[in-house]
């Protein structure tokens, strides 16, 4: 059966020839066959050459490409892709780590599976679809993962797509046991995961290697973890020997779970305080109290339309942190906004430093963890930008 088709405008096939997996609506001059949301479509050049196959969606990204070769998009196709993603993590030893049992298993375009994110939580697999077409395949993916991950003791599969699939989906367990909460371990720190209420797929897995760096830097320091969520960075600081740690988040539920995680690892007497507050307002109450500040805010720039407003937000919070940090202190700052480039982020830091009248050294670049691979054909996949800075008076 012939698939619906998207016909590109003249010269609009250049990105596809570079194997970029996104086709924008402005590149398409007409549709053949009236494709519906999530349907497989073939993409043709203006002179009728077949270019790619992907999932159609009613968005500015009108198609996410699955294959640049003419082939069936069937169970065997997906099995090969998922098996490749699993084998990549096997080669890096993620299934064998004694003190870490949480990691990303499928990273969308980075694993040649646009629209699919899968995270491994100590035997519970959380799948998140970012397109209707991918969500339709979840029953096939569950069967494949149960087969491919049986040797690692897969216990359950959770669909976490309610906020990411157009038209909505229900967050629920779709295979196996149904734990309300689940315990994981990262670098020896135990954390309780709430799959239903948690952000992203339940935890910010992409910061794992940066949390390990915080552990190395925290000995004898007073640490402020801003936008602290459930306390991942705070646990690393405490394990690293911090004298005192504060976790600040506007969500009361997040702080409650953070404090539960602290007790789980360090007991009732830990030198930690959880604070439910707006971070910008809370910054006004400190002045030289902390010599390591972590800024890991939500995405201030969701897309390019909100880029300038988002950069303004990043600049404000970074300037405030530079003004309030102890002389010579370390500032670990991040943006998870895909719309913010490395150059945008570094320029923002420069402006914040100048406005704060501080001398700032860039100590280290801080990318996301290596279970989040980036396709060379899709540089947009490098969404997390981070810098470790030292802040002094001018």
Low-confidence stretches: none
Strand content: 25-35%
* Alpha-beta classification: alpha/beta
* Arithmetic mean pLDDT: 94
Characterize the largest beta sheet: strand count, sense, and whether it forms a barrel: 7 strands, mixed
By CATH, the architecture of the largest domain is named: 3-Layer(aba) Sandwich
Considering DSSP H and I runs of 4 or more, what fraction of the residues is helical?
Answer: 25-40%
User: What is the fourth-level CATH superfamily of the largest domain?
Assistant: Vaccinia Virus protein VP39
| Quantity of strands, as a count | 20
Can you characterise this structure?
This protein is of the alpha/beta class and 394 residues long. It folds into three domains: 63 residues, PUA domain (Archaeosine Trna-guanine Transglycosylase, Chain: A, domain 4); 114 residues, RNA methyltransferase domain (HRMD) like (Transcription Regulator spoIIAA, 2-Layer Sandwich); 190 residues, Rossmann fold. The chain is 27% helix and 28% strand. It contains ten helices and 20 strands. The strands form four sheets. Strands 16-15-14-17-18-20-19 form a seven-stranded mixed beta sheet, with helices on both faces. The chain has a six-stranded mixed beta sheet with strand order 2-6-5-4-1-3. The chain has a five-stranded mixed beta sheet with strand order 7-8-9-10-11. Helix 6 packs parallel to helix 7 and helix 9 crosses helix 10.
